[in-house]
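Team,

Forwarding the record for the chain on the shared tracking sheet. I've put the sequence and predicted structure together so nobody has to dig through attachments.
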Amino acid sequence: MKNKIICLLIVALSIVACTAPPKDKALTHEDKAEIKSEITAIVDSIATSANELRTDYFKKIYWNNEEFIGVDLTGAHSYDEYMKETDEMYASMKSINFVEDQLSIVVFDDKTVVALFEGKAKGESKDGVKMNLNNFNASMVFRNIDNQWKLVYTHESAEQEIMMPETDSTMVEESM
């Protein structure tokens, strides 16, 4: 009887050991490459959406949660504030063109990735103001939430150069 209990205990422990999820399973090179590919596609889609002056993709990929933090040239924002500011800015633009110089991606684990975008942008508002964003940098933290990559934190900075449109005396008088 004692041997049967020991055998059953060994079998039960073996089953638990075989079916338990591995703890801190290291990602393989292939796993990391696949995650980097997924994040690269997301960052490319963010840039494409920006260049097309569309914010619908931002609303899908940025984490709509009270813990989201977006830091840009005007300060730190919640998800709602960041989306409102982004919608307003893109609605005022005639064109914008982000160009990637370099994208670096660090995969920490299967749930956390940091992407560093370096590049530049040129744009023009609907009222003729032209801008250059030189040395544009975006640091982005992605989390895998419910099997979807979400941007949970972003920090953007740039050297911003603004060129006012040529004005004639009529335009100057109207603005006074």
